[in-house]
Amino acid sequence: MSNLTLSPTRLILALVAAGALGGGGAAWMIGSHANASAVTASAPIAAPAPLASPFAGTPDFTGIVQRYGPAVVNISVTGTGTDDDDSTGNASAMPRGLDPDDPLFQFFKRFGGPGFAVPRGGPPIVRGLGSGFIVSPDGLILTNAHVVRGASDVTVKLTDRREFQAKVLGRDDKTDIAVLRIAAKNLPTLPLGNPRDLKVGEWVLAIGSPFGFENSVTAGVVSAKGRSLPDDSFVPFIQTDVAVNPGNSGGPLFNARGEVIGINSQIFSRSGGYQGLSFAIPIDLAVRIKDQIVATGHATHARLGVTVQEVNQALADSFKLDKPAGALVAQVEPGSAADKAGLKTGDVIRAFDGQPVVESGDLPARVGEAAPGKSAVLEVWRNGKREDLRVTLGNADDKPARISARDADAGKARLGLALRPLAPEESRAAGLESGLVVEDAQGAAARAGVQPGDVIVAVNGSRVDSVDAVKRVLSHAGKSVALLVQRDGQRLFVPVRIG
Length: 499
What we know:
By secondary structure, this protein is an alpha+beta fold. The protein folds into three domains: 1-50 and 60-299, Beta Barrel (Thrombin, subunit H), CATH 2.40.10.120; 302-403, Pdz3 Domain (Roll); 417-497, Pdz3 Domain (Roll), CATH 2.30.42.10. Helices cover 15% and strands 33% of the residues.
């Protein structure tokens, strides 16, 4: 199924890279920089150690900034693109469709909206800014993949004002991680923490270059962990309320001990600027990707081969689950790892190799962290009982697992469907052996999202080929039923309240 698309009137997912080529970037940099101590290359610098335990109450971050600020770098990129180029598939820093008379239009034009550096008679030249941080004294740097995507020239600037041309060792678009190297020695580095120890409500700190303001420091708290975003991402994001804006992309997110626990990557925004929702890639995931890129020049991810959707309360009732949790399998790709393991449409995956799957987005994140060829155990809820399936994972480079759109809440009333069996030619066209065409949808089913032209393939996991078959299932159903619907060649479960 296609990725989620968020309309301009709703929240848009905005990459926070002013440095993202194709997403636009700040076309200028101010002359001053943060009051961090200068770094020289004359003497080796010992491996950093974490600071003392977290502060009680509101923390004082000055020690972290002074000690570790010099390891945060500014990244400027140059390449070619078009005004609407955004290879990430997400909204750029410039809000789409912004009226030229709107004051925000002039703001983004001045501070680096996309497509403003367009030479006459040639392809547009895109310049942008991002952030990054040093992870080894010999010049290895982590940043976001979208910061350097399409870049023909990458320049890294240190807090002591030295500048280096950087080589992009590799990037992984699935996790938005890129690794750079500069020709320098004895550089300051940052200590890395464990995101699994991070607690919701804990203080965190970001350093980066929002809108080109170099080495800016902002702070906030962890709002949530393990967030899945509607972009087919393999990343279980850390959500914070730290002020993050275009240009912060690729910069570090610190805990109160001065350990890096994430890489600032995305924001949710209506305007393209910070509105209280920012997301960071957990550093343990970033390090795994970094190690693969350094070793081989690229990263690989595993693949299961399913389309899954969220389990809400109505679906939980339909499948007799004790709570609305897990990833409901709406479709299994023939020949995939899931198909070979015996996974079926209607299964609810509740754990992956011992790790719980609470939301549907947990599954692709768990699978994406594994290596192709890995053997894993899936805990599955099937026909009212638990089963364990062993699967050998495929490669995500073929086709990544996808998350279907979340279902709307079902209404309350009768089913309200006018149904007829598929004609032979319709069966052949739809690739189905059996099913019922929805000729009219009213009442509870219509409110749940069922539409005329949909094909009902199964009810509560039971295949149906006649109206009588539907009635038999309904006679034994509880307060809700789960309809497996095929629409435009894709399948999804629609929960319908009937009592």
